[in-house]
Amino acid sequence: MSLWYVMQVRAGTEENARCQCLRLISSNILEHCFVPYYQQKKRFQGEWHIQETVLFPGYVFLVTSDLKQLMDSLRKVTGMIRLLRAGEQIVPLSGEEVDLLLKLGREEQLVRMSTGVIENAYVKVFDGPLKGMEDCIKKIDRHKRKAHIAIEMFGRSMDVEIGLEIISKIK
């Protein structure tokens, strides 16, 4: 059975590490290797543009059914800090964490923009991956079109940013 592991790298080097893994590690050992991204809207040159930003800076996700061979192969990857652990034990992501990643980013691991409204001081998301996850939203930055959400990931609660456009505010 394949499990999802998380490799820690220096923030900003995620794509480099991902490409090295794909190039240096056999597909028999490494089934899938990815860096999750989220879409955000940025305004420059007078227009709104959608950009993709790393969802978890400093982390690369690896899917394998053979941890021992994967660890041996990762020695060739420069820039790897470590695989995430609990104490001395290397631990895979839990089923809930994998489900959350698949819910947010689907197979392509790209968290698309969500759209919603603020109604009587409550956020109502009617389109996108945040639909049904309104309870996780801690803060909204309407100017930057982002939501700060709290999720359980890597065995702890993490705050991450996800693109959210609030179309209107209803009193």
Describe it.
The chain has 171 residues and is of the alpha+beta class. The protein has helices at residues 14-24, 67-74, 95-105; strands at residues 3-9, 30-34, 37-44, 47-54, 59-64, 80-83, 85-86, 89-90, 110-111, 114-119, 122-127, 137-141, 146-153, 156-170. The chain has a 5-stranded mixed beta sheet with strand order 11-10-14-13-12, with no helix packed on it. It has a 4-stranded antiparallel beta sheet with strand order 2-5-1-6. The model has no long low-confidence stretch (mean pLDDT 92).
- What are the low-pLDDT stretches, counting only 5+ consecutive residues below 50? none
Q: Quote the distance from N terminus to C terminus.
A: 51 Å
Order of neighbouring strands in the sheet with most strands: 11-10-14-13-12
- Helix/strand-derived category reads alpha+beta
Measured as a percent range, the helix fraction is 10-25%
SSE pattern: EHEEEEHEEEHEEEEEE
> Radius of gyration in whole Å, from Cα?
18 Å
**Count of individual helical segments:** 3
Average residue-wise pLDDT: 92
Which geometry do the CA atoms define? elongated
Q: Tell me how many strands there are.
A: 14
Largest sheet: 5 strands, mixed
* Strand percentage: over 45%
Give a quick precis of the structure.
The chain is α+β, with helices and mostly antiparallel strands and 171 residues long. Helix content is 18%, strand content 49%. The mean pLDDT is 92.
